[in-house]
Every structure is written in C-alpha cells, then in structure tokens.
Design brief:
With about 260 residues, the chain is an alpha/beta fold. It is built from nine helices and 14 strands. Strand 9, helix 5 and strand 10 form a beta-alpha-beta unit. Helix 2 crosses helix 8 and helix 2 runs antiparallel to helix 9. The radius of gyration is 27 Å and the shape is globular.
C-alpha cells in the first residue's frame, strides 16, 4: 500500500511539474515574436543620379531614394546603412552578399526579373531625349541618323537606345554617369543623350535650361522604379513592400515626393 501511495504521489508531482512547464511555454508564446526588428540592411546606391541619390557639399548622401528608404525603415521597424559605389558593380555586390538591397533608380524590367527580385514600384518614370537647344527631335527613328548618342552604361537609357540602334552599335557612346554623358552633349561630342526624364530635368534645371531641349518621346512609354533584393529573398521584399504601404498611407511618401519634384 505504501508503494501504491508513493507512486500516486510521484505521478501527481510529475503532472504538476509538467503543468507548470507547459504554463511557462504558453506565456512565452503569447509574446509576439518580431524577427529582424532591429536588422540593419546594407543598401547599395550610386550617388551620381540626382535627384534620386547624390552627395551634398559636405559629402552626405541625399536624394529621393535615400529619404524614402529612411522613412520606410522607421515605419517598418528596421535599419538601413547606405553604401555608395559604382553603378556597374551594384548587382554583383548584391548577389555575393555584400549588399542586402539596391536603391539606385533601378527600372523594373522583365530581363532583370530573371536574376533579381523587385519591391512594389515606388516611382513612375519615362525615358527622354536630351538635345542641344537649337536641335529639333520628333521620333526615335531619328537616332538612326545620328553619329553618336550618349547614355550611362547599363542604365535604362542604354537599354532603350540598344533597342533602336542595336546592342553592338558603334553609335552608342557610353559613360559612367548621367552627368558625364550630358557634359559630352554640352561639349558637342554627341548629338543626343537618353536617360530617365526626372534625372535629365533635374540636371537641366540646375545647369542652365538655355543650353538644352528636353524631348518627350511617346514611344518610350512609362517605366517603374523598384528596390532590388537577391533572388529568393522574399522576406526582405515583403518587409519593403509593407513599409512602403505604410508611408503611402500615412502621407509621408507624398511629403518626400513634394520635396524633390514639386515645381
């Protein structure tokens, strides 16, 4: 009988212990987990694409993309650290893990979607053709009659001109940045320059509208910018999309837009 009572007591004690342990786990589970709440994303950018990314006189990074991502980080409960580097190395740095995100006025294209993931679009853009003030321009077909057309290497303007002149055309003069390409136009080394309309407009506004004519070309249509992450990194894309929705809903997006694009 003593053995029976002893076994019963042990069983009751064990049940009490297990119950207590189960209660502790239940309480822990009731606290919502926040993975990556304090995660710092390394963001690659090329600060030669004003007004989206550039440097101030004191060397600080500034621009629409910079302000937008900082606002998204605050709304989405994460952190960002920007890394300025040449455009042509951004996607390689993303793929090898040196960067988590690329934010540098990257146009969403079907070709790029094959090797990278994009966030939801955050800016609408159209390609434009910049010519000297006295020159008239009416259609993309006119590019075929030019001796040299300037673009920034690998950017959307480069891809757009390739579709007209051919990828291997010797008429395409490639430069490391939009400002360098426009400077070549100003110096008479090329007959036209093709790039994103907002970037061209920003440069012309700051450097003399009397020197150039900005030509809108309907054939280009409308493209969209997106933030870029590595293929398969859906968690980061979801985090960016959620944060973008929050700042659109709060009106913060509109405030940042007005700062850079109001007339």
């Amino acid at each position: 009988m003593k053995i029976k009572y002893w076994l019963t007591a042990v069983a009751a004690c064990s049940a009490l212990i297990l119950s207590a342990c189960g209660g502790s786990n239940s309480n822990s589970a009731s606290v919502p987990a926040q993975p990556n709440a304090d995660k710092t994303f390394i963001v690659g950018t090329n600060a030669e694409f004003a007004p989206f990314e550039s440097r101030t006189a004191d060397g600080s990074l500034t621009g629409f993309d910079i302000d937008l991502l900082n606002a998204m980080a605050k709304a989405g409960n994460f952190k960002v650290q920007f890394k300025d580097q040449p455009w042509d190395g951004l996607f390689a740095s993303l793929n090898n893990g040196d960067l988590d995100i690329v934010a540098s006025g990257v146009t969403i294209t079907d070709e790029r979607k094959q090797s990278m993931l994009f966030s939801d679009p955050y800016f609408d853009i159209s390609m434009m053709v910049l010519t000297p003030k006295a020159k008239t321009f009416h259609s993309l077909a006119e590019l075929n009659n030019m001796h040299r057309v300037a673009v920034a290497t690998g950017q959307t303007g480069d891809l757009a001109v390739q579709k007209v002149l051919g990828a291997q055309s010797t008429k395409i003069a490639r430069f490391d940045s939009v400002p360098l390409a426009i400077k070549e136009l100003e110096n008479g080394g090329v007959e036209a320059m093709v790039s994103d309309g907002a970037v061209i407009s920003n440069y012309v506004k700051a450097n003399g509208a009397d020197k150039f004519t900005i030509n809108k070309v309907p054939e280009f249509g409308v493209d969209h910018y997106g933030f870029v992450v590595r293929k398969g990194d859906t968690a980061t894309v979801e985090k960016l999309n959620d944060a973008l929705k929050k700042i659109r809903a709060s009106g913060e997006y509109d405030k940042i837009y007005a700062k850079y694009f109001s007339n």
